[in-house]
Amino acid sequence: MAALLPLDAHAHVLTSIDERDLRELRAVTFAVTREPSEWTAATHRRDKYCVWGLGCHPQVPRAVDAFDADRLHELTERAPLIGEVGLDRRSKVPKDTQRTVFRSALEVAADRSRLVSIHSVGMSAEVLEELSERPVAGAILHWWRGTPAQTTQALELGCHFSLNGAEARNPKVLSLLPPDRVLTETDYPHTERSDRAADKPGAVSTIEAALALAWGEDTDGVRRQVWRNLGAICQTTRTSALMPRAVQATLLSMG
Fold it and tell me: What would the pLDDT profile of 203-240 be if each residue is shown by its tens digit?
């Protein structure tokens, strides 16, 4: 079997990027968007190694103002990923408005059965409340910093967790998560300040090394586990057929 590519389950990439630049990363990247203005371009991309998400970042007021649940539902017919969406205590957007948009995004994710990459800065409890009321099979908690009790609740809700180099430098939930619930991410470019190795999408070596140490595995074993985890989510949500062909082939190779 060919060597597995790194998996970056959450990175910020311009929708105008040249496809060759993405291929040169030699990684599979989940490129999340921040605004509805990016959605059309994202759905028109046909990249070999990049999965594009349709997002509405809670920290971006114009994005929240432009959110259209009907349009999101329409466009996710051919998009396997919604993200990044969620809640943020630091945002200038009123909390009630954030929750209304997040609820609508979760309803689309549940109805379409899609993966959803979730932002939860300072509002872990509120995010879990929304997920409890609107269960989503493909929920991936990005850069999760919840308490042990909240992490247990998230696990009981069936959530997966995408971890980056910041978790390796300042562990908070690493020891609380079973290996079959973990994905790797960079959150490029936002983790560069805490992980200098994360200087491009797909550069997940820091978190892979931390997981190898925590799990008593080598990094190849970590990468295989992460890909198996993605396969499990795709099987549950039935989104494999919407993934790029190279991703589909890798998932099939994992058995």
Answer: 999 999 999 999 999 999 999 999 999 999 999 999 99
Q: Which residues of the chain have pLDDT under 50?
A: 1
Residue (of 100, 50, 60, 54) closest to 77 by Cα position: 54
Six-digit token pair at 124? 């872990």
Contact yes or no for 1/246 (Cβ under 8 A): no
103, 82 contact by CB (below 8 A): no
The predicted structure's pLDDT at residue 3? 82
Residues 41 and 55: their CA atoms lie apart, in Å, by 12
The runs of H, that is alpha helices, within the chain are: 19-24, 39-44, 61-66, 69-75, 95-112, 124-133, 148-156, 165-169, 205-215, 219-237, 245-253
The span from the CA of 10 to the CA of 110, in Å, is 20
Q: Judging by beta carbons within 10 Å of its beta carbon (0-12, 13-18, 19+), is residue 77 exposed, middle or buried? A: exposed
